[in-house]
């Protein structure tokens, strides 16, 4: 294919095609927040005595006592006794699924970031009605935040997940594509990549809910299960080290300030994180990618390397495999450079198969 004025006119004519995914605001919402607090021995002892007094509402797992008495409200309480050398330290952890608190058995409900703080205050009041000894969530430190978005992709969901699993996300990132019986989020119906500060998962929400039913963990009514069909859930999980960085950069002392800031900056944070995984932009078919590269302002040699990479990716149906061959022929440094160039023009260099009906797909 030659890249001339006629191809430009074709692109302009078709850029608003009904199959085109319009890139725009990411609009993430909060699914889960994890809080932690270091306890004294006396506090730990009092709290464990309380949860053990609640018949059949707790169990022990490794170093933790897990309390399930608030599970129907989406609140999981864990009490840890960590042995360190000759001593020990004690910790409380809340794992709170905000949408489930608001609508008990609605496992599809997500909460807007700007509304999270007031909801957490309400959750704190509920926790105090269960046990006065327990601290309020807002008195604890946030150690994990899951920002989530549900994307309807219909019958294409299996292919989109395969596409994500075949995408190169960098050497400092660990991709996962495994069967993991205890957690349906990480099965063949999912894609997961992570580094030290965050984790990105895409999974088939319907298959995840079915897995939980089969394992006896949860019950979903048929209507809710049907609502999940065709939904790809995207989940960004930020860990303690990233959250501490956010708090330090904004000099935030309280949870409310952090969540207010996050409600304004979440799109920017997610976009930068996607860039680190080389997933900033959209998937396209091969011909479209060639046109975009040819029309870019990059140097001729850079364009040639980008075309070389995308041809390898199409040939092997995987940009992970393409990265291996490209690094052998050029270098890892050259690979990083062209991946950044693909980021700049909003292309994820794993071409969509010509057999697929859709022309492009984007997380954004």
Written account of the structure:
The protein has 364 residues and is an alpha+beta fold. 43% of the residues lie in helices and 23% in strands. The protein has 13 helices and 12 strands. The chain has a 10-stranded antiparallel beta sheet. Strands 11-12 form a two-stranded antiparallel ribbon. It is elongated, with a radius of gyration of 23 Å. Mean pLDDT is 83; it is low at 1-24 and 177-182.
Tell me how many strands there are.
12
Morphology call: elongated
Measured distance between first and last alpha carbons? 29 Å
Strand numbers in spatial order across the main sheet: 2-3-4-5-1-6-10-9-8-7
| Biggest pleated-sheet summary | 10 strands, antiparallel
Topology pattern, helix = H, strand = E: HEHEEEEHHEHEEEHHEHHEHHHHE
Record the SSE blueprint.
Layout: H1 5-14, E1 29-39, H2 41-53, E2 58-61, E3 64-67, E4 75-84, E5 87-97, H3 98-102, H4 113-130, E6 141-152, H5 157-165, E7 174-176, E8 190-194, E9 198-204, H6 205-215, H7 222-227, E10 231-239, H8 240-250, H9 255-276, E11 282-284, H10 286-294, H11 300-316, H12 319-329, H13 332-344, E12 360-362
Antiparallel strand pairs: 1-5, 1-6, 2-3, 3-4, 4-5, 6-10, 7-8, 8-9, 9-10, 11-12
Helix pairs in contact: 4-9, 10-11, 11-12, 12-13
List the defining traits of the structure above.
alpha+beta; 12 strands; elongated
